[in-house]
Amino acid sequence: MSFLYRLFQRSQPAAPRRRRSSGTGWAPESLETESVYTVIITNNGEDAAAGTRIVAPLPTGVASASWTAQFSPGASGTASGSNESGNAVFTAINLPAGGTAIFTVNAVIAESSAAEVTFEVEARAGLGVTDSDPNNNADEDTNIKYRAGQFIGPALVVGSDVGFRSAPTVTVIDPVTGEEFSQFLAFESGFRGGVQTFTADVDQDGVAEVIAASGPGKGEIRVFELDGTELTDFRLKPFGDSYFAGLSVAFGDYDGDGSGDIAVGKSRGADVAVFGLAAGGTGWGAEPFQTFQPYGGSHINGVTLAAADIGVVAGGVIQDSTVADGQHELVVGTGAGVSRSVQVMSLAGSPTVLRQIAPRAAYGLTGVVVAAARFDSDAIDDIFVSGGRGSSAVTDVFSGLLPAGGNVLQQFSAPADSAGTNARSFASGIDLDGDGQVDQVYSLSGTGSSRGVAVFDRAGSQTNT
């Protein structure tokens, strides 16, 4: 007798089971999360496979497991069970030729020192049965899990503005409760140039980190956990030790290799450099894989950056503008002192402009700040463009589906206290419920305003005072 197993496994981590109702961005002090694994075993051989044993050890960090099984006609076995004797699953099944069994395993992951949980499963031939291919009978899957009490987002991260009395502080806020989670110095306490922040899962541990880009007076990138712990391997001076004029930053997968890249632009000058992760994912590559000047070498006003997925792009051309392909494009705006179109660029291959968005004339020469998120219900990121000063400051949300000068989905006016000031306002959206779509828009006014963060609903109305 001979047979062949086909074993497939995938996991779908569920939302954390929270043991307290407040602070929805926090992992509870006694953490339990549940991961659901689907295991499919198929006998592709010509003979029946009786007494096939399905063995899945109980992983380290898993408190308990239960399972159910479904069988194709002619196949049989126990319909359900739970962990016993150190195994999440330990049972025998009978499979005719072509027969299939599908196991659904619910693993409750409890707090432990491990940062990952690896689920392994194996199909073993029954007594007296010869397996024609013993090399395809096992599989495994690794899930990231959270630490008890860890802030897991969504997070509102605010960096200080440039100013004589400012300090380079980063503040992390739970946007649901308004609770401040942490505040820390991104750079030396005497630095007065301000901090631009960007949140992304830089080290691929399943939790976002804070990327801090220095303002004028320094030219450095640092990366922090949300509690302020620095990941020192990710320090970067993208334009060398002699550049001090400040930076703009955006993190995304620009080359489509499945791992993140960091795009860094000069706040004074013309240059953008893009670095991939170093081998092993600790730190950045020694050299950028892209360097270019989106507005030409004579541009001295700097750039602002954001990462957006605006569709399927190949060969510098949008092939399908309705489907997100997981690869990011770079959104580029200009710094103060000039008014030029916002560019959406593909960095897969030679940098190519895919779309241009003309900012409103009322912005004047203030420059623009760009951001990206899914504002409407389609699958494509939309482009946030903020410009102007004082009461004339405004953020326009442009549809990611449309070409240059396309549809404005929504406008967000300057916060109520901006009248009579010369403050700039910057806005971006946050997804609060995990469905991938913006629920609220948060606007921060710069130097000259007394307000902290203004919160707007999707209709453009300010909801806090």
Structure in a nutshell:
With 465 residues, the protein is mainly beta.
Word description of this protein:
It is a single chain. A five-stranded antiparallel sheet has the order 2-3-9-5-7, with no helix packed on it. Strands 6-8-4-10-12 form a five-stranded antiparallel sheet, with no helix packed on it. A four-stranded antiparallel sheet has the order 19-20-21-22, with no helix packed on it. The protein has 465 residues and is an all-beta fold. The N and C termini lie far apart (76 Å). The protein is built from no helices and 35 strands.
Keywords:
single chain; 465 residues; mainly beta; Methylamine Dehydrogenase, Chain H; 2 domains; five-stranded antiparallel sheet; disordered N terminus
Main sheet record: 5 strands, antiparallel
- Beta-strand proportion: 35-45%
- Give the termini distance in whole angstroms: 76 Å
Oligomeric status of the shown chains?
A: single chain
Overall shape: it is: elongated
Strand order of the largest sheet: 2-3-9-5-7
Q: Which spans of ≥5 residues are poorly predicted at pLDDT below 50?
A: 1-31
Relative helix content:
under 10%
Mean pLDDT equals: 83
CATH class of the largest domain: Mainly Beta
Query: What's the CATH architecture of the largest domain?
Result: 7 Propeller
Measured on Cα atoms, how large is the radius of gyration?
26 Å
Counted beta strands: 35
**Structural class category:** mainly beta
Write down the CATH topology of the largest domain: Methylamine Dehydrogenase, Chain H
Number of domains: 2
CATH superfamily of the largest domain: Integrin alpha, N-terminal
